[in-house]
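dude i think i finally got it to work??
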Amino acid sequence: MTTVSEMNNCNLSAVLHSKQDLRIDETPIPEPNENEVQLAIGSVGICGSDLKYWMYGKCGRHVLVNPMVIGHEASGTVTKLGSGVKNMKLGDRVAIEPGVPCRLCRVCKEGRYNLCPDIKFCATPPVDGNLGRYYTHAADFCWKLPDHVSLDEGAMLEPLAVCVYGCQRGAVSVGSSVLVCGAGPVGIMTMLVAKTLGASEVCITDIDDNRLTFAKKLGASYTVKVTTDDCQQLASDIRNAMTSAPDVTLECSGSDQSLKTGILVTKSGGCVVLIGRGSLEVTIPIVNAATREVDIKGVFRYANW
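look at this
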């Protein structure tokens, strides 16, 4: 019989050995290095990237070669302090910002450390993630949670950061007219962030009625169900639903057709932000965007929590 004490001394982790080969393995309990903390993990979300690694053994340009602990949307409680840690104490509850950059290169010093070529990101090969009992992380990339925020809510801060950063890239502000493409978890949160930032109207699209109904309950000004592959027709449907062409389109579905529609429907001088991930190469109406000065911006994770 395994006692509670014995269970606390093992580190069961979700380890992906190869595509569609996910196992619960006992892994060594990591000890914190200098300026790191050891965490007892409290909650971990499942990201689309975790699903892609499991299904295909790769996500974008990142390929699984060796077994890897999955998970990067996490929170936990500090159980050990490495030398030099001054901003944390035992028992602190934290959200984990999963990417740790070099802090020294040009993009790091410019504040865009998410683009650091040497960033170490949880559950991005070959770096292990944090879907286990214990995990160590740089103390300065752990963020203390207020008492009223649960560990489950703390784990949601990572995907929320994607949505906030996407809205920042699109300069969503008071009075903005916003289109969100895709009413999945990221799309819904992006809609909520846009409203919090002061957007006057937010339209959201999806292929699923239930998702659109849920988005409407949470405050979407308009919903449009995608029923056609004709991007021009869909753009017309969106324009008819909204009071004006959107200032900003936030593409959260990862659909190539959705990206094309976003370019066509966004107002001249507006902005399209790619939060979702579609094909590695996409044919888009680039001349339409260029002659109407529709800016197309990418989003890679987030920076400056």
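The longest strand covers residues 36-45.
im so relieved honestly
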